[in-house]
Every structure is written in structure tokens, then in C-alpha cells.
Amino acid sequence: MGLTSKLDRLKLKSDRGQSSSGNSGTTTPVGETATEEGVPEGSKHSSNDTDDIDEIDNEGQSILMGIISQLRPGCDLSKITLPTFILEKKSMLERITNFFEIPDLLLEADATDDALMRFVLMVKWYLASWHIAPKAVKKPLNPILGELFACYWDNLPGDSTAYYISEQTSHHPPKSSYFYLIPERKIRVDGVVIPQSKFLGNSSAALMNGWGHVQLGNRGGETYIMNQPNVYCRGILFGKLRYELGDQMVIKCPKTGFEANIDFKTKGFISGTYDAIEGTIKNTNTGESLYSITGKWNEVMDIKNLATGKKEVLFDTSTTRIFEPKTRPIEEQLEYESRRLWAPTINALGKRDHELATNEKAKVEGDQRIKAKKRLEDGVEFHPKLFRPVTDKDKGAQDLEYVIYKRFDLESDPETLRQTIFDTMPILPGQIDNASLQIPAFKKNTTETPEQEHFVDAPAAPADAPPV
């Protein structure tokens, strides 16, 4: 029996009264954006949102078993086409914006004068973001090479605005590069997400390689460097299907010497609990441990001052205030922008029409393979449009692998910073497409200017640049 015919016969848990939420609501259409200043965490996903429904029962798992029977422990899952009912209705490029949906915590950290307290608040901001995810076991769509996603926030506290640009800069292995900016506060984030999928038997793992750099321009360019915990999907062959975050996450600030090491604990086969974290904040200059952090990353996290013994709540996820990103209308977006590119697939997923979703997804991936073959035949290389590879001259940025090609000087006034990002890519409704985004990408020049720290502009495309 074929995959799609099996999917037609799936009985969804929600139809049997076994959904994870008993609330009612409606699904937000693709392209619709929130306009509220901040929405409660519970309202981001409704019970009718397919991202919150585990569309897998015994027969659903037999489909996964049919796929997994071809695999061996430790093999790479990136080349395996998984059933669409476990797909989230967004690309990985958009999924990354979860980190920026609690901006009030980031702004609070930036406004704090005490360096240690500022570091604690940066740790709080980063830990708070991990619970923003579908309630069901879902994975984002894998971006195709050259895929773009841009969005903005025009309703942040203190009349601040924020802008986000991302691009899939590599396909094998997958690398998602991103850039985020709050012009009024001189806050800049550069990062790359490099997921590596592995099959482990009854589990699959997404080993989340890559780093993020957060620069606070008003704090003398103070930079916070952080990685991510790994993601595990349990119960593929037997038991309940669920995901866990696991392994160690590091947050460090080289300028101040403060560093946080957070251990995301996975549940043992017999003992232990789900979703627990345990970690410390220390001063690497003195070796002194300053705080301990415990709790659950998706419930309540506590922090204890090791000098005084005082313990208090670091963050309670039930109080989360979400600021959802906004985008240009679908009809204004570029062909390779995520929401336009995947719109037919996402709409089919929203209707739970998995046969149609499978077909639409295959069209996008098939077109990608044709373009890759054409590049191979023509002997040309792919070059990202918005990001360039880092070089030895990019001080402290080697772990990012790619950085945005435009130069953003955080000492510039907010309007100059804002205009520079608009010159990079259209983000707001009604903005005219940058002509350079309509032509093949070219290799970016990495020649530095004397005043550059580690990001530069790219010149116009050279006349002999190869087509891609």
C-alpha cells in the first residue's frame, strides 16, 4: 500500500478526543500576521492548528517504521523524505525567529548597567525562547538552497523596531544563516544553524551545530556567544512519540569573562524526568561559580545566588508575552521567499490534506534538484545573495561561517542602520524589490576597509561573475 493511501486512512488523535489541548480556536491563514503589541503564549497556537496536533497513531507509526527499516543506526536522515504529517507549517528560516519573539527580555538586558546582572538577563532571554514551539512533534520544512526569509517587528517596547533576514547558504550540509537588528537600541545578532540528523534506533537526533553572536552596541560592542541544545525525537518505533532537548548549551561573553553552562537533561529509561535543566554561571577570570540554574525549560526555571543562598524564579514560561513577526504580503514576496515558496505545501498542511502537501513539497524539491544538476553541468558554483563566507580577517566570527555582506556600523544612527537593511532586502509592505535580488548571485568581495571590524559591504557584481 502506498504512503498517500495510508495517510488517507489515518485517524487523528484529536478526532478521538485525545488532542493535547482542549481549547477551541481557528487556524491562521498563511501570510496573516498578528497586530497586537504582544499576545499571550497560549494564543499563539490554537487547538485546531495542525502544528499542535500529533497526527500519528499506530498506523502512522507503521509508516515511519517502513521508512526506518531501510536505515541503520547513525545514518544521516537528511536524504530521507519523511511523511508530511510531522511537518510544521514553516521553514527552518522562519523557525529561527522564535528566538526573537520575547524581545522585552532582550531589551531589559541591554538596559541593565551592571555587567553581571546584564549577563544573567541575557541567559534568561535565551533560555526563555526554547518553549516557543508546536505542542505536537513537528519539524520545520528543510529550506532549499538560496531560500530567503525576511520579517519585521514594529511594535516592540519603547517604540523600538526590529528586522530579520535569513538565507539558506548551504544545502549539503544544510546551513541557515541569519541576521537580526534593533536599530534604536544598536542590538545586532548574527548566526548560523547547522542541523545534522541521525537515526539512533527508537529515536532520531538533530545535532544542532552552529553559533549565534549577540552584539550590544550601546555596551561597547559587548558580544554574547551561544550555541544550541540538540533535539531528540523519541518513540519512533515504540512508546509515545515526543521530543526532548538534550546535551549542553553554552553562553559566554569574552569581554566580561562570564559564562553559563546549561545541561539539558534527557529522561533515562527507568529514572529521571522530562525537560529538566541544570547549570551554572561562573566568572572565568576568577574561576568562581556565581549562580546555579535548575527547573524545566518549558515550565519554571529557578536561579540561586551561590554566595547568599537566595533562590528565586528566573523565568516562568506561563507568563510569556509573544511578539510574532510580520512579513510582506505573499504577492509582494520574491519567488524564493519562504512563505511564497512553500505556500501551496503549507496551505495543504493547514487543511490536513497530506497527499496534496506531499505532491506540492515534491514540486519544490524537484525544481531544486533540476537547478543543482544544471549548475553541475555548467560548471558553476552557487553563491548566496545576502551572505558571504567569513575570512581570517573577520575577527571572532569564524564560527558563523557566513555573515551578511552589508556593513552595519553600530555607531551609526538608527535611521542609517534601518536604511542599510532595507537596501539589503525589501522587508516592509510596499517596498520595491532590490534589483540585485532578481539576478544570479555572485561571489562577494571580502576586501576590508581600515575601519571595518568584521563585516563589510559587497561591491557590485563583477562583469565576469558566472551565472548560477
UniProtKB/TrEMBL annotation:
A Pfam family reported for this protein in Swiss-Prot or TrEMBL: Oxysterol_BP
Alphabetic keyword roster: Lipid transport, Lipid-binding, Transport
GO cellular component: cortical endoplasmic reticulum; cytosol; membrane
Domain of life: Eukaryota
Region (Disordered) residue spans: 1-55, 444-468
GO MF term list: sterol binding
InterPro entries: OSBP_sf, Oxysterol-bd, Oxysterol-bd_CS
Annotated Basic and acidic residues bias: 1-16
GO biological process, one term: lipid transport
Biased composition (Low complexity): 17-28, 457-468
The keyword Hydrolase appears for this protein: no
Entry's family note: Belongs to the OSBP family.
Protein name per UniProt: Oxysterol-binding protein
